[in-house]
Amino acid sequence: MNSAMSCDADPTRAMTEDDEVSDCSDDGISPEIRRLLNTPICIGGRTVQSRLILSPMSGLTHVAFRELLAGFGGCGLMFTEMCSAGAVPHENRRVSAVFRWRDAELDKLVCQIVGSDPAVMAAAARRIAAEGFFGVDLNFGCSVGTICRKNCGAALLKTPDLAVQIVNAVRRAVSIPVFVKFRTGWEDRPQPAADLARRFADAGADALVFHPRVAPDRRTRPPRWQHIADVRQAVTIPVFGNGDVFSGPDLERIMRVSGCDGVSLGRVAVAMPWVFAQWTVGVAPGPDIFRYTLLRHLELLLTHFETRIALRKFRQAALYPAAMFQYGHGFYKKLRNAPDAEQIVAVIHNFFDAAPRSMDRPNMNLFL
Ligand SMILES: Cc1cc2nc3c(=O)[nH]c(=O)nc-3n(C[C@H](O)[C@H](O)[C@H](O)COP(=O)(O)O)c2cc1C
Q1: Residues with Cβ within 8 Å of residue 339, at least 6 apart in sequence
Q2: Catalytic residue set
Q3: β-strand partners of 239
Q4: Could you identify the atom of ligand 1 that is nearest to the CA of residue 55?
Q5: Where are the domains of the chain?
Q6: Whole-number Å distance between alpha carbons of 146 and 152
Q7: Ligand 1 mean position to 266 CA, how many Å?
Q8: Closest residue to atom 30 of ligand 1, CA basis
Q9: Cα separation values, 40 from 37, 50, 111, Å
Q10: Tell me, which fold does domain 21-281 have in CATH?
Q11: Which of 23, 112, 158, 159 is deepest in the core (most CB within 10 A)?
């Protein structure tokens, strides 16, 4: 790789060199919530140190991104992209685009599976347990047409008995922690979700990640954080809230409104992978953190994937940090049009050399 492509400085150092621990006033998180975020939590008999966890995201939470994230610290658990349960038992980790990991991350890594047959889901979970993952996560939340048409993801919320059977089958198959990620369902009432949460817990789920939106809603309307409270009150297992947490004040609010045990961060984690460290222990990011992070992300993608795939994945991910800047749209367009890694690096340097203005919240036209 061209030396100009590698980072001049380690992004973690760029963030920690001041080693500042804020008293929360800067990022809007109170000492009380920060203390809670750093209180270890027990999931299925195993301890997780931080209550901020990474959401599973297709095309984004691959092995390269997770290595980037792990470098910053502060993240309690990381989730893979969704993996087809039918494929997992036979998948070659050296070849698979999604069922791929570093051994060093296994103790914090949960593998998400998608499918609708209890026996197939159980077989996938057995392989995941045998490989040494921290846990297995069942995707009952994805509402994209290609998944729902196969009666998978959020479609399973229309057949709660089958969803519960899946939890049961996976629970009987493995002793590692079992997570369920689900959403409000197909009607905008919290009660069915709370009832289902109780059934998932009774069937042996160890933790829930709840996204309070109805299924056809996708991400167009704000999530109803207060509905997380209904799910939280229905069960005694940990409940992680999820949805539209983009800033410290959002994090403070979702935790106060819902009383959730922790929060799963999605898009903001791709935009600013250091937020886990920033929001848990108050480490202040260095001034050039976005530049270093983009360069390091690209470098890691080129290490883990063949060039064409690495560049495609980089272009998908770059949307999120670009959304944090004024004129980020133009920056993103240039990144998307740059034909190779060297030109992507040049675009990154040109943009940040001009000292662009970053924003407190993302441009939602880009943050899809
Ligand atoms: C590009 C993209 C891919 C996603 N892929 C998955 C997935 O594979 N499995 C899943 O359960 N959720 C998936 N999600 C949903 C996220 O896990 C999360 O619930 C959603 O982005 C809301 O959280 P956020 O507002 O913090 O981003 C995806 C979201 C995005 C933006």
Answers
A1: none
A2: 142
A3: 208
A4: 17
A5: 3-9+286-353, 21-281
A6: 9
A7: 6
A8: 57
A9: 8, 6, 21
A10: TIM Barrel (3.20.20)
A11: 112
